[in-house]
## 1
Amino acid sequence: MIVEFLLNGEPATARIVSPVSLLDVLRDQLELPGSKNACEQGECGSCSVVLDGEIVCSCLVMAADVGDSEVVTVEGIGGDGLTPVQRAMHHSGAVQCGFCTPGIVVVAADLFARNPNPTTLEIKEALAGNICRCTGYGAIIRSFEKLARETS
Amino acid sequence: MTAPSRVRPARVAGGVGDSTLRPDGIPKLEGSFEYAQDLWQEGALWGATTRSPHAHARIVAVDVSPALSIGGVHAVLTADDVPGSPTFGLEHSDQPVLASDVINYWGEPVALVAAEDRDTARRAAAAVKVRYEILEPLTDPGEADTRDEAFRRIRIRRGDQEASGPVVVEGYYETAMQDQAPLGTEAGLAVPDGQGGVDLFATSQFLHVDHEQVVASLGLSADQVRAHPTGIGGAFGSREDVNLHIHLCMLALRTGQPVKMVYDRSESFTGHVHRHPARMWYRHEANRDGTLARVEARILLDGGAYASTTPAVLANASYFAVGPYKCDSVAVDGVGTRTNNPPCGAMRGFGAVQVCFAYETQMDRLADALSMDPIELRRKNALTTGDHFATTGQIIETPLPTVEVLESLAAMPLPADSESDLLPGGSGLTTEARHVMRGIGYAIGIKNLGFSEGFDDYSQARVRLAGSGAVVETAAIEVGQGLVTVLAQIARTALGISDVTVEHVDTSRIDSAGSTSASRQTQVSGGAVLKAATTLRDRILHHHDGDDLTDQGVLRNGDVIVTMGELVADDWQETATFRHPPTTAPDEYGQGKLHADFAVAGHRAVVDVDPELGLVRVIRVDTAQDVGKALNPEAVLGQIEGGIMQGVGLAVMEELVVEEGIIRNPNFTDYLLPTILDAPDVEALLIEEDGSWGPFGAKGVGEPPTISSTAAVAAAIRAATGKAIERVPVRPQDIAL
């Protein structure tokens, strides 16, 4: 089947011949490898994308179900240069191996769009579905606390 | 000709001591950084692996025809197709590339498939028909010890074996099998070169040793295989061993096409080694004043089915069995058993983690028995520079600020009694604040830096002028820790040039950098970069009779006499190899100068416990760590916080559950990893001192945060609950029942 949807603001078409996740279609067919496959169970958040305004794990979404939807991946966050969320992470040591980073960028961008001044607990709750194995989360929390202070 | 007087390089932007930003940070944040999982070439096939569903079995017959008959399948290979050495191994070549006769662990590879797409490859791998005769697996390491199924035994005897003390504590402790769980699974791409050779781009921590093993099993000459570095999503020890490397090359050479392979998470759990589960018996004897009179320990690590690094991990567990303490009467017996459990090997801390949980619990018990403050007991016995190391007897020659670590840790402010944003159980609201019990626990730990026991530990690096500055070439693997940042910082400061980039190059272009393990790359590969950069600067200044090198070029009396462009056109480069101070193999009693350097760290954990449900929330973990010199303070903090989190994970949630040799929780739903809501607040003090042999006095910082953080959390839970807590991870039933 052919699935047409809006991907990072542009019309996209996926040809689906077997049951396949949105994550696989993004990575293998639409050449957007930024969304990462780390667990394929919706546990780690590395494949987080925005689907019709909601954060989802793209590994848990059937590609066949996104017809006429709007999908935003890490590649669709920002335009020229880093967004405030990305810049905050870059300048606070919040990136190590980087495998969780795209998912965190997507979720944090969504958080700050809804709530430019989140508390520490709100930051943690927003990111509770994103596992990072490298940083111990300290630098991630600090980067967004700093951004929240700057935007308040 | 006399050498002109030269000034040391001025402080250079982005040099050592700055928290320079990662050069790969922006592509990682934008999603454009290329990981091994993202590699692709036109016409590439997908590889998949057929694995044993049994922990121990005899292979009666393998029928590949059902797999071959599937449309789109290009090759199905078995043990008969391995062209060279049928086995591989990091230290001992004992692990079959593909099992041919006997299965020794659950998930052992039996056959390989290459097909036109991933799903077809996986379907074909499942279609390979293997007839097994199931055998009784040996899964009890105690039984393996009795049967002398051992990869290594270590016997340490130091000092008067009749020594004794009036205050005695004995204990038996266990630590579970932990997984490194890097977020990027094993992945790679092998590309045949059309002349019988192959280029391999795969996840790794130790490029040249991967290369050696691949070459041996392919039966090729060394120059026919090139192992390339690639983007890696974390490692923590899991990538020291070969897993899909030989398989990918076999499939690529057989099909004549590029082959890509990516393990899914479940396969990843069987595709790499784990942290050894440990059983440890201890007896400490002390004098009334608290000084240690004698320490005895028996340590059993289960190595699982194949050797991997078990002999070296066992060595670490045994040599670090007493911890950062002085004691002149020591007896340690260690064994690394061979069973049909999953193979175990390197994970951050490498044997020092397990024993730290045991010896620090013993120290707390000893303090109790002596009615002494546990910090005071540790300070009284603290090992420092000039002392004999309790197990090996070697004199500690490098700075070892154990006392400073302890004192600064104890002096750090504690949170207010009520301070916590969440209760145990989190937003589940399963308890009320008045039912929660708070506990505080301390632990300190020690580990070697760099390879030990006489291993020739070296790294080669090249520094050349190119573009508008310099390029550092190395085969050292960046896994996320920030080596790519710190090597450039070292070169900037040593050269006096700010425009420096790091290029990770393949095995044909440079000699080994050694493994990204043992907290060694900043010290050893950093040492090689420092040596190459310093020599290059000296040669350039000498050649042009200049007195300073800067971004502008060579200066004499403040004037540019040769521009950077002119220097670059002259192709200046220098290759250097750095070796750390030599170590020796142990004698029959485990004595000798076995280790080149040490680091100590201490942790103080604050936990809240819900005693009814047995739930724990780790509120804070404060730390003081011996870092030599922090070359990039923010990156050091990142290592400290990340290492602490893995230690907390082992303390309260991370356990690979293995029953009859089968991993029961090989996925992220059932293998629990700490989330951001589990992250404790961390305050870190970096203890700096001069005198270590690392570049600018730097010590490795990756592993020490993981050594004693587990023990500190366990001690805090013990303090909160009064329970003995002799096993980690601490499970709800250990507290509530």
Note: The longest helix of chain B spans residues 521-544.
## 2
Amino acid sequence: MRSMGATQEEYYRGVRMVPYDLVKEIVLAIVGVGVLALLISVVLSSPDVPQVTIATWAQQNPPQTSSLAPQPALHTDLPTTRWEPARAGVRSRLRSGLESASRSIRPTPL
Amino acid sequence: MSAPSSVEQASAAATTPASRSWTLRLRQSIERHLPMDHLLPDRQPYYVGSWVYVFGVITIAALAWVIVSGVVLSFMGPQWWHDSRVGRFFNSLHFWSVQLFFIFMVLHLWGQYFMAGWRHGRAATWMIGVVIFGVSVLPAFTGYLSQQNFDAQFIALNAKDAMNGAGAGAFFDVLNFGQMYGLHVMLLPIGVTFLVVVHLVMVRTRGVVKPIDAEGGTRS
């Protein structure tokens, strides 16, 4: 460690030192990056897929929403366009398994 | 040689028991290892003027914007960024600040890697930087899980298998929105910020490493 300089003064001995404004640098960096982030946000926006709520689900499929409690998990005709291709296999397996298991579950009369 | 004055005797009596004071020892340690002229230097080696050193400070600037936009989003609640135009704008600002943070952090990491920034007793500074990069992935991941849409569910369901396979599913439940949101807005940002502060203090304590083959610089 001694050869590396026990202190900064020893480590920098013989190295040319120049004036440096650290606070100005960080302030300018924050302003610059902020402007860049704002511009990108304005131009590109962000990938915003709407959230799934009970309200949107009920509007799209009122009978399903009000008929069976376990039904959504089994017959998922929800707006699942992004979900559908990747999880179709899993869902079909889930459906067959859960359907057989849920035959004993009675619909909730409303 | 004259006898010590009463003031000097009182001073000596006062400082002797104080040498056992934890507070005094902590203060002396901070003053010894991190004096203010190291913490906020007004002179730096000439080589710090290179553009490659800018990546570190702009990474911190991006982190500042991530935190500011994240505080606004967390204050307004987890539906706001879907329900209002202003909320969607802050969501975009948060998202792009994170992208900039990761881009600048990777550039800083590459720069320090090719400059061998771990030389001359700075291995711990380098390793904490690498740990920051690894830990930063977690708030990014929990952020995607906090979107409350099918994207979030798709990511969560696929990640659940990986978490279970890794044995972490029992205490890190990616299907639990409350847990993921809490981690995202509280614990993980505190962890990343703490590590960044430690990293900065280490850089300021040791100073910036000399470039390879610069004045007095070596490869080892």
Note: The domain at 117-206 of chain B is CATH 1.20.810.10 (Cytochrome Bc1 Complex; Chain C).
## 3
Amino acid sequence: MTTKRIIPCLDAKNGKVVKGINFLGLKDKGNPAELAQRYEEEGADEIVFLDVTATMEDRGALLDSVRSTASTISIPLTVGGGIRSVKDASTLFSAGADKISVNTAAVRNPSLVTAIAREFGSQAVVVAIDARREYDRWKVYVRSGTEATQLDPVKWAKQVEEAGAGEILLTSIDRDGTKNGYDMDLTKAVSFNVGVPVIASGGAGSAQHFLEVLTEGGADAALAAGVFHDRLLTIMEVKKLLISKGVEVRP
Amino acid sequence: MRALILNYGVGNIFSISSALKRKNLEVDVSSVPRPEYDLIVFPGVGAFSSVSNFLRSYGETLNRLRKEGSSFLGICLGMQVMFQSGSEGGGGEGLGWFQGKIEKLQGAPKLPHIGWDRVQLTNSSLLTENIDGRYFYFVHSYVAQNYDPSDVDLVANYGSIFPVLVEGPGIAGTQFHPEKSGESGSLFLDNLIRWLRR
């Protein structure tokens, strides 16, 4: 059976890895290619690279970072940030991305997901969903968490699956950077309602959090950034706990 | 040694190119099959019908290059088009180098099948040295069925058992992505180079 994946995330801005809390207060955490290589050596199953402030103007810096990261590592690389067209996606694939992740552009234009999937295959299209809790429900946010939509994350996830997404990267804005654990209710709601793999994101602070979200939460992969960047936890420590609890991971 | 990666015009061929260069192969990329390469690679990107149509348009050239001594490696979709036919996206004919057809993976909990799986040895070969039981990276929804078991060196299990390394004279195909499989992938490529020198 397919192993559960542990995925470090590099949030990059102007060619540097940054990390904030609740999507705000970004701090410099180093060079993406170097960090990616360190994570591969430490047992990462995949790398996600998100350019959190990507605009068309700084696309050059993003492409350079993708190329240098992709030529360094030999595990899969997902790249997201500012992708608005099939051509944008194509440019990133040529630079060494194995999958691309779309968020805002998918909400604005859901047919973009279908168009990229048709050309490059569903397996190459990740739809990132950023959700924030509001009373007893969640709302999907776009533009790095700055703009609310009327979309419900579970319905939206089903809709993008239908449109051709091969994977869903589900982030809880409330938990982002808090190290208080993944949003289990949100993760369960999405992962048990779609037929494509779900990557849980936002809130990882301990190995126990990974265990919970990958078992009870139903997630296929767990993503984390700050907890790994700050060396509060190593990927191997996470995997050791998972193996001891009978969860299959790549040793 | 020299490798040619066939570029069908879509997707990431940067990774396989980087992986082969790390093994000290001289790597060229071309949209046309050309002679005098030790290895010709069908990369694992695109959709079955477009890639098989593309390759079948060079069918005679490819068969001639095989006779002249070039070896071939197909990765993921690049392996699938080496079979007789595929059902993805309306279906189509493949190159027919291996017996069998490409069908949707049965019994899988989630599709696409994305992630690391352990491979299991069914036939030993130069290509499988130190590989049995290791984890490789997969990303696909379709697999080979009705295949000839004597072509299969390795299988994996995700909902059902399917071939992940097939081999014939001068041709090999992997359902996994060696270029994305970290240390396991690197070991496989070392074997591949020994297999090319055989």
Note: The longest strand of chain B covers residues 160-168.
